[in-house]
C-alpha cells in the first residue's frame, strides 16, 4: 500500500486510520487512490493493536557474527530488566534492504529501533531511510544507531582507527618489520578504518610502508582462511606478522597457517580485533583489541528506553590485549 502510493508506512497509516496528525492533501490523495486500486479494507483487530509494543527492534547488517551476538545478548539482558524484549532482523548491509526492513519493523510499532551498521548516512537512498526514521520518531518511537552516522539520533560508535594504532605500535616495538594486513572487505568502513590505524601504528614504530601489504577478504572465518591459503600458494609467507581486521578473520588465518605447518607465533605472529570469547579459546590465545561490546549493547537499550530530549552520542575505544599468538622478532 505505502509503496504503491510512494509514501512512508507511517504516512499511509495516518491517512487510513484517521490520525489527528495532518497529512498534506497530495499525499492523502495518493494513499486513498492506492487503497481504492488495491481494494484495501482496514483490519479492526490490527487497528486495536496500534499502540506501541514492549519490543525493541534490532536491525543489523549481519546477525551471524560473534561480535553482534555479544551486543544482542547484552541488549536482551538489559531489556528484560524493564519487561521489554528484543526482536531482530538482518539486512545484509544493503541500503534498499535496510529501508525495507526499517519500514517493516516500524509497521510493527516497537518501542524503539536500534540500527547497527558500519555507516548510516542521511543521504542514503536520497534521504528516504532518514525520512522513514524521522516519521517513526514523530510517532513516538526512539531511534538508536550503533555505528558511524550523521543522522540526528542517539548513537554509539567505536574509535576503530585510534583503537587499531596500538596493534601496529606493539608489533613494531617487538621487532616485526614485514607485515601483511588481512583487511576484510574494502567497502566496510569499520574494518577499513582499522586498517588505516594498523598502518599508522606500524609506520610510527619504524616499519617501512613498502613492507606493509594489504589483502582483502570476506569478513568471516572462512574469509581469513581463504586469504591466507592464497598467500601461502605463492610460496613461503613473506611476512613476520598477520594483522587481521577482526577475530573471526584471525582465527581462520591461524587455521590455514596450522594446516600448512606454519607455526604461530614462532614463524609468524597473528593479531585480531574485537576480543570475542573464542579469542581466548584458540591455541595459541589470540592477541587482539578488546571492544566493550556487552557495554555497547546495554547502553543501546538504555538510550532506546530513556526519556531524554537531547541527542546523545557515545564513542567507545578498544584496548590491546597481548596474548600468546604474538612473539618478539630479532
TrEMBL record:
It comes from Phytohabitans aurantiacus. Pfam families: LacI (PF00356), Peripla_BP_3 (PF13377). Residues 311-330 are annotated as: Disordered. CDD domains: HTH_LacI, PBP1_LacI_sugar_binding-like. This is LacI family transcriptional regulator. The keyword Chloroplast does not apply. Residues 1-51 form the HTH lacI-type domain. Transmembrane segments: none annotated. Keywords: DNA-binding, Transcription, Transcription regulation. Gene3D superfamilies: 3.40.50.2300, lambda repressor-like DNA-binding domains. It comes from the Bacteria. The keyword DNA-binding applies. InterPro entries: HTH_LacI, LacI/GalR-like_sensor, Lambda_DNA-bd_dom_sf, Peripla_BP_I. The gene is lacI_3. SUPFAM superfamilies: lambda repressor-like DNA-binding domains (SSF47413), Periplasmic binding protein-like I (SSF53822). SMART domains: HTH_LACI.
Amino acid at each position: 500500500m505505502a509503496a504503491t502510493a510512494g509514501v512512508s508506512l507511517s504516512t499511509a497509516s495516518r491517512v487510513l486510520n484517521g490520525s489527528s496528525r495532518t497529512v498534506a492533501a497530495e499525499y492523502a490523495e495518493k494513499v486513498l487512490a492506492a487503497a481504492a486500486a488495491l481494494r484495501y479494507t482496514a483490519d479492526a483487530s490490527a487497528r486495536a493493536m496500534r499502540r506501541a509494543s514492549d519490543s525493541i527492534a534490532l536491525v543489523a547488517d549481519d546477525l551471524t557474527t560473534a561480535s553482534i551476538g555479544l551486543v544482542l545478548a547484552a541488549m536482551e539482558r538489559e531489556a528484560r530488566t524493564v519487561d521489554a524484549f528484543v526482536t531482530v532482523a538482518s539486512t545484509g548491509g544493503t541500503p534498499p534492504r535496510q529501508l525495507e526492513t526499517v519500514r517493516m519493523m516500524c509497521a510493527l510499532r516497537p518501542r524503539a529501533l536500534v540500527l547497527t551498521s558500519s555507516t548510516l548516512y542521511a543521504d542514503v537512498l536520497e534521504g528516504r531511510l532518514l525520512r522513514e526514521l524521522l516519521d517513526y520518531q514523530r510517532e513516538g518511537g526512539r531511534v538508536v544507531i550503533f555505528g558511524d552516522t550523521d543522522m540526528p539520533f542517539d548513537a554509539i560508535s567505536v574509535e576503530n582507527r585510534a583503537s587499531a594504532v596500538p596493534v601496529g605500535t606493539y608489533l613494531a616495538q617487538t621487532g616485526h618489520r614485514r607485515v601483511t594486513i588481512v583487511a576484510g572487505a574494502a567497502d566496510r568502513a569499520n574494518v577499513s578504518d582499522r586498517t588505516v590505524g594498523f598502518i599508522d601504528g606500524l609506520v610510527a614504530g619504524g616499519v617501512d610502508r613498502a613492507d606493509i601489504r594489504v589483502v582483502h577478504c570476506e569478513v568471516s572465518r572462512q574469509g581469513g582462511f581463504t586469504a591466507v591459503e592464497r598467500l601461502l600458494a605463492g610460496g613461503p609467507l613473506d611476512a613476520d606478522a598477520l594483522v587481521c581486521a577482526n577475530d573471526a578473520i584471525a582465527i581462520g588465518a591461524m587455521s590455514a597457517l596450522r594446516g600448512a605447518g606454519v607455526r604461530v607465533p614462532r614463524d609468524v605472529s597473528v593479531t585480531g580485533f574485537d576480543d570475542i570469547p573464542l579469542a581466548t579459546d584458540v591455541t595459541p590465545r589470540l592477541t587482539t583489541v578488546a571492544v566493550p561490546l556487552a557495554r555497547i549493547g546495554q547502553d543501546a537499550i538504555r538510550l532506546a528506553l530513556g526519556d531524554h530530549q537531547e541527542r546523545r552520542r557515545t564513542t567507545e575505544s578498544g584496548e590491546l590485549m597481548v596474548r600468546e599468538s604474538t612473539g618478539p622478532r630479532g
